[in-house]
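Slide 14.
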Amino acid sequence: MRTVRLMADFDPVLNDLLNNENNKIKYLSWKIQNELIHLLSSEVLNILANEVKRSKYYSIIVDSTQDITKIDQLSVILRYVVLNYETKSFEVKESFFGFFELENHGSKDYENLIYDVLDIQNCRGQGYDGAAVMSGAYSGVQQRISSTVSNAHYVHCCAHNLNLVICDAAKSTQVATNFFTTLQTIFNFFSSSCPRWASLAFGETHAKTIRLKSIKKSLSYSLGG
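Slide 15: predicted structure.
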């Protein structure tokens, strides 16, 4: 909205739309804004999809995490090569294709969601973390996809590998072990109590307010009704 109002200072049509009192319809509601964002994101996704289709083959990088509402979101990233025949050059690209809601967490559920999003027949590589549901040699996602597309080779995610190396390196010295153990203990102490967390995050004044508020069980529930 700030950008729109700034542009209105230099665009007479937009300026009239914003400032003309006789204009009741301005197309600036949150619904219209969300629709514009959706249209833009759809167009970007179409451009990326066409780019991948021209490249034909790709690798997938997939991971899931919970959002603020505790719903698992599966992030899908494609890695592919863009060829420029005029300059006889190529460019390796990684493009984010979106978050997709994941209702269940079995390897079959991951597999079905990937099949719904992608044409898996052109997949030539898979990159996941080391969790059994993803990397399992017998029923993990990588094995399920490999059994469908034999050329879709699995590679353990390099970022996760680096994380494991750093964790092992930190455990190799007692000083680092003591530091992270103390840090984890402090976190557990504060996170197990709302008033403690409030003291840490907002200060003692807000913490006192939180301590004064409590939720009581209903009479029927406490009596087993």
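Speaker note: DSSP finds eleven helices and five strands in the chain.
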